[in-house]
Amino acid sequence: MAQPGFDGIELVVHAMAQTSVDNETYFSDLDAVVGDGDFGYSLARGFEIVIATWDDIDRTDAATFLRKVAAIITSRVGGTSGPLWGTAFMRAGAVVAGSERIGADQAVAMLRAAIGGVKERGQSDVGDKTLLDALVPAVDELERAVDDGSDAAAAVGNAAATSCAAAEGTSSMLAKRGRAAYTGERSIGSPDAGAIGVAVMFETVARLWPQSQR
């Protein structure tokens, strides 16, 4: 598998930011089914600042860049999403502190660290009907591809497909965390907004990754 560098991190973060802004209404509508309906709005408010200040974010190294993004998200995204997503970026950055180049194994380790941060901060795990239900299977697939030496574009594409299927699968789950948990059985029948958000972000990265390698 090709070795992604700092450019790869920038691509992923910018794709996440643009996806959040572009899908603000969609994500909020999904969240409104059993939640507060503010997920899309909250996420967009933080990531639009990331986009607006993109050229000014400190790029001394990958870890510094991710810490700065984490600070923006934590301070600008409302509700529980700010601390969760901010922690994810912070933990990912800690993995590559001092690294000049980010290899495939490190990329997976960053994602694993982000997952660990979300689990700890949100007191949640796979099966609770959260973004973890789309993120963890995608990272599992990505790690398998790295271990197999798969082409990067194909690996990211497969991870995106896995994430999408897993996100849709949250429809049959009972929510155990967040406002949706208070709705009990009513939470069954619709997908988790956070999981769908992660899946759409993966799809965006999968679409852009081949273009960035030309």
Keywords:
globular; 9 helices; Serine Threonine Protein Phosphatase 5, Tetratricopeptide repeat; mainly alpha; 0% strand; 214 residues
How are the SSEs ordered, and which strands pair?
Blueprint: H1 6-22, H2 24-32, H3 39-52, H4 62-76, H5 81-95, H6 104-122, H7 132-148, H8 152-169, H9 193-212
Helix pairs in contact: 1-3, 1-9, 2-3, 2-9, 3-4, 4-5, 5-6, 6-7, 7-8, 7-9, 8-9
Q: In percent terms, what proportion of residues is strand?
A: under 5%
Distance between the termini: 16 Å
- What string, H for helix and E for strand, traces the elements in order? HHHHHHHHH
Structural class: mainly alpha
Tell me the CATH superfamily. DhaL domain
CATH architecture verdict: Alpha Horseshoe
Radius of gyration over all CA atoms, rounded: 16 Å
Beta strands, count: 0
The percent range for helix content is 55-70%
Q: How many helical stretches?
A: 9
Mean pLDDT: 91
Tell me, what's the shape? globular
Overall domain count: 1
The major beta sheet can be summarized as:
none
CATH fold name, please?
A: Serine Threonine Protein Phosphatase 5, Tetratricopeptide repeat
Low-confidence stretches: none
CATH class: Mainly Alpha
Can you offer a commentary on this structure?
The structure is a single chain. The chain has 214 residues and is mainly α. The chain has one domain (6-212): Serine Threonine Protein Phosphatase 5, Tetratricopeptide repeat (Alpha Horseshoe). The protein contains nine helices and no strands. The protein is globular and about 50 Å long. It starts with 5 loop residues before the first helix and ends with a helix.
